[in-house]
TrEMBL record:
Signal listed as a keyword: yes
Phylogenetic placement of the source organism: Bacteria, Pseudomonadati, Pseudomonadota, Gammaproteobacteria, Lysobacterales
Organism of provenance: Arenimonas fontis
Signal peptide start-end: 1-22
Keyword terms, alphabetized: Signal
Name of the protein described by the UniProt record: Phosphodiesterase
Superkingdom assignment: Bacteria
Amino acid sequence: MKALTVSLALAAGLLLQAPAAADTLLIERVQAAQGKTLPARGQSMAQVEKAFGAPQQKFPPVAGPGDHRHNPPITRWVYPEFTVYFEHNHVVNAVLNKAHQAEIGPKPIE
């Protein structure tokens, strides 16, 4: 019984230490993102293109089902370091791109 308790304690200690490297990477990326200038909410497509240049990719608008008032068209522009989302012609959000496909997060920058 004592050996089982010791084994469980060691396993718990190892599990608590395992994600530290990934957490540090995410924290560093979030901190780096805070210093970056991204398109601001409300800017027009023309203002974004003037300030940041032409995007690498422009995806066509996608609208939800029903009328455009409740499901407006959303357009996505992809730059090397970030992606911008537009509702009609204005920025609704800009987020940093992932460093690799397996990465989770960071949260959108507002």
